[in-house]
Amino acid sequence: MKRVAVFASGSGSNFESLVEASRQSNLGYEVVLLVTDRLDAYALERASRLNIPTKSFAPKAYATKGEYEIAILTILKQFKIDWIALAGYMRLVGSTLLEPYQQRIVNIHPSLLPHFPGKDAIGQALKAEVAQTGVTVHYIDEGIDTGPVISQEIVAVRPEDTYETLQKRIKQVEHHIYPKTLAKIMREDELNVSKTRVN
Ligand code: GRF
Questions:
Q1: What are residue 155's DSSP bridge partners?
Q2: How far is CA 151 from the centre of its chain?
Q3: What DSSP state is assigned to residue 158?
Q4: CA separation for the pair 69, 19 (Å, rounded)
Q5: Cβ of 174 less than 6 Å from ligand 1
Q6: Closest-lying ligand 1 atom to the alpha carbon of residue 9
């Protein structure tokens, strides 16, 4: 069973769905830690309800981004974290975390990347008047939403859509695609480990 830390800055509905899905069936991972960069993230309340340990780090309390990430890394080691799942974590991950967790950090983004990267992907899609947008789960690299895509699902944009209605349908897709994708990654991870053992 792989040990996952979820990183969030806000509401944490994806965090909650990752936890709930893994408790309902064996997906090969368990969420053992929530990390936030905000002391007031609503995700923290969800974690307390779900009985998941939390650690919050205020970036301003550290002189550099590197120091901030070293503090996080220390906790990740204590919790023996195998994988990191970003879920509304509003910060670029730096090399201090990227290097030790190479190809082991994933993110969910509310658009069909490479379309509409960065902030307010849903607003961007509405402004561009596209007929469809969607959800992407991808690996993280140094860029903003530029890492290799793992899975995507289309969400149609309806003429009558407001920000709220479109966001609601996107979140519904997110809440099933993220646990499903993580489960797929965990299976592949197991296969790779056993291949290494055989060779
Ligand atoms: C989601 O739309 C996710 O795709 C994006 O941030 C949002 C987080 O929502 N990266 P929540 O905090 O999980 O409800």
A1: 133
A2: 13
A3: P
A4: 24
A5: yes
A6: 12
Ligand 1 pocket check for 108: Cβ under 6 Å: yes
CA distance readout (Å), 90 to 12, 108, 182, 187: 12, 12, 20, 28
Q: Which ligand 1 atom sits closest to the C-alpha of 11?
A: 12
Name the residue with the closest Cα to ligand 1, atom 5.
Answer: 88
Q: Return left, alpha or beta for 80; rule: phi > 0 is left, psi -120 to 50 is alpha, else beta.
A: left
Look up residue 114 and give its two tokens: 């490479």
- Where do the structural domains in the chain lie, given as residue ranges? 2-198
Model confidence at 97: pLDDT above 90: yes
134 CB near ligand 1 (under 6 Å): no
Return the closest-CA partner of residue 135 out of 151, 158, 157, 124. 151
> What is the C-alpha separation between 115 and 145, in angstroms, rounded?
10
CA distance 182 to 28: 8
Which ranges of the chain does DSSP label H, i.e. alpha helix? Answer: 13-24, 43-50, 65-78, 95-98, 121-128, 163-198
Q: What CATH class does 2-198 carry?
A: alpha beta
Which residues participate in catalysis according to the annotation?
A: 109
Q: Is the pTM of this model over 0.90?
A: yes
pLDDT band for 191, please (50, 70, 90 cuts): confident
> Which phi-psi region, left, alpha or beta, contains residue 102 (left: φ > 0; alpha: ψ -120 to 50)?
beta
Token pair 């830690």 is found at 33
Q: How many CB atoms lie within 10 A of CB 57?
A: 18
Cβ(41)–Cβ(69) under 8 Å? no
